[in-house]
Amino acid sequence: MFEKDTLLGKHILITGGGSGLGLAMAQQFYTLGAKVAICGRTEAKLQAATAQIGEGSLYYVCDVRDPAAVTAMFDYLTEQWGHINGLVNNAAGNFLAASEDLSANAFASVVDIVLKGTFHCTSEFGKRLIQSQGTASTAQEATTQGGNIVNIVTTYTETGSAFVLPSACAKAGVLAMTNSLAVEWSTYGIRVNAIAPGPFPTEGAWSRLMPDPSIEEAYKRGIPLGRYGQNEELANLAAFLMSPMAAYIQGGCITIDGGERLMAGQFNRFVQWMPRPMIKQAFGAMKSSRNPA
Ligand code: COA
User: Fold this and answer.
1) Which domains are present in the chain?
2) 59, 60, 76, 156: which is the annotated catalytic residue?
3) Residue pLDDT, tens place only, 9-51
């Protein structure tokens, strides 16, 4: 479905692009013809990642919590590329903790990265694009200068989740930002969408969110498709949203979780508890006991 020039002309910044899902997206965008930049807090990690992505890919050391650093990063990328027309807000912080044990600083550390960091980058991105459109000489030129934002949220944005309260609150805020700007910035040809990943076992997430390997197996059984997501699968979805193929998708939040979010359905757990022939046998026995021959 993708061609090698599907993202030609896209100049995309991926925050937290030094590893995991961020790096997978950067690699896929680059393969499809985009100019790609990644940012993060650790230079060595970013350097290694750009070597993996390919020649011409850029990195910038930046903590998205710091608005001045974000401005400096956008200045640098504007200088390099002329303009930036794609942004993936992927940088995140998360850890497992009982909510009653959270300090104000612990709550803030996640909200500052996820919600405020997303705002800082989105705001710089939008301001610059909108300003550049003001200098366009024709309406058509202004439209072709549109842009794309993809925000990485989570499936518990909708439901909330135990033990990750700061992340649940911050990601819900990012979804509200997605929906708000999707309407407000349509005028400027800026599409704003979100991806809600379920379980993707990246080192960054798993080292903080999977306390024990024995839980990992039990957890997997709770996913209807019976496996975790692969980074390339999420990267493909992000590439699609960035591409002209998704030109009419605005304010969407696309879930990619192997069906996990639906497991709340009252009888869905039967799928996990018993093999299918046993379920059918039990249902058959119940039916015959109600309707004896
Ligand atoms: N449980 C409870 N509180 C925790 C915690 C944990 N596992 N980890 C950190 N905190 C608290 C700290 O105790 C501190 O609060 P305090 O000052 O009241 O003691 C506060 O959070 C900030 O911690 P600190 O380590 O100074 O902040 P940081 O800015 O260096 O780190 C985090 C931010 C905590 C989000 C860190 O995990 C991080 O940088 N993560 C980035 C990568 C990531 O999380 N990836 C996974 C994405 S799914």
Assistant:
1) 11-290 (3.40.50.720)
2) 156
3) 999 999 999 999 999 999 999 999 999 999 999 999 999 999 9
